[in-house]
Design brief:
340 residues, six-stranded parallel beta sheet, four-stranded mixed beta sheet, 14% strand, globular
């Protein structure tokens, strides 16, 4: 039986020191977002423009999805449709099995977390290595992400030290962040070289061109799909935008809202497979059309997964992401979860 949020929150807040720094760390990110936003006089105009584009997209979703499929196929992309999480997982497994893949490197994808892809593949003999540093930390710890942008925000450096000592063989008690980061780099470099396929999420998909865009700060998505010949991109159907010229609006908003940066370090555009390779895009519903049909919750499909609502919400900041018991926690997760 699932644990209720108040019970799980009590478990988190029992450690008062952890609650304090978790609260402060997230508010620090929120304050960075505010400073970065205030540096743009056109900030509110950008938000309004993005909302208008999203409203148009959601209102014409079926037509734009068909346009995206046609455009992507013209680029040599294999396009797949999944009605729910189970179908998504079966499609990904079939693609990997067709290519006899046993080792996968994956960049951050909340959609695959939503579908519980990692354990599904592991049960069928396929190793999946999350290559985002925060994601890898929680994967080694046997935990789900607690935040959609900062997956290991609930871990202190001493916690990471223990995890790395157990799994990577770092010296016991070594909690210096640069040394821990170097250990992770060496560990992940080996995994990248062993990867037989790369799986990514999708931040934005462009109906007009059939291209997809993946934003990271670590470059792991680029490396993960550059070495193998097989790239599988998994996306919810709400990730669509109509035109390439719409993209800069969202890129300016996403980085500032998520981490208080003017732009993410890497904004990677994929327009078809690399020479000699294959690109598969899996479009997933999994409850999204139910939200689309709801007058009360349709606007939740405008969400660009920046995580700013979590950094703002005092309940989330003081109770931790795991207390929600859902893939996407916090305010937006409370709206999305019932549709899953």
């Amino acid at each position: 039986m699932p644990v209720s949020h108040p019970v799980a929150a009590d478990q988190f807040t029992a450690d008062r020191e952890r609650t304090r720094w978790h609260d402060q760390a997230l508010w620090f990110v929120r304050a960075k977002r505010d400073r970065c936003a205030q540096s743009l006089p056109e900030w509110e105009d950008l938000r309004e423009t993005a909302s208008t584009i999203k409203h148009y997209t959601i209102s014409h979703l079926a037509d734009l999805l068909e346009q995206f499929e046609t455009s992507a196929r013209a680029l040599g992309v294999h396009v797949h449709w999944a009605g729910d999480a189970a179908e998504h997982n079966r499609i990904v497994l079939e693609i990997l099995q067709q290519h006899k893949v046993k080792r996968v490197v994956k960049s951050k994808s909340m959609l695959t977390e939503e579908c519980h892809l990692n354990p599904y593949l592991a049960e069928r003999g396929i190793e999946v290595v999350d290559t985002d540093l925060g994601e890898r930390i929680v994967q080694l710890a046997g935990e789900p992400p607690s935040h959609i942008v900062l997956p290991a925000i609930h871990k202190k450096k001493e916690d990471v030290s223990e995890i790395f000592h157990e799994h990577l063989g770092t010296p016991q008690g070594e909690a210096d962040p640069p040394l821990l980061a170097e250990a992770a780099r060496q560990h992940l470099r080996e995994k990248f070289l062993q990867g037989e396929a790369g799986i990514t999420g999708v931040n934005f998909a462009i109906a007009e061109t059939g291209g997809i865009v993946v934003c990271t700060n670590e470059g792991n998505a680029d490396l993960g799909v550059s070495l193998p010949q097989l790239h599988i991109a998994c996306m919810g159907i709400e990730k669509l935008i109509p035109r390439l010229e719409d993209l800069p609006v969202f890129l300016r908003l996403l980085a500032r809202s998520a981490t208080g940066q003017p732009v993410t370090t890497y904004t990677s555009h994929f327009h078809g497979p690399q020479p000699g390779g294959e690109l598969h895009i899996v479009l997933v519903d999994n409850g999204r059309t139910e939200l689309l049909a709801s007058d009360d919750f349709r606007r939740s499909l405008h969400c660009i997964r920046c995580g700013a609502c979590m950094n703002t919400c005092p309940v989330y900041r003081r109770s931790g992401g795991h207390s929600y018991g859902t893939t996407v926690p916090g305010p937006i997760g409370s709206i999305l979860a019932p549709a899953r």
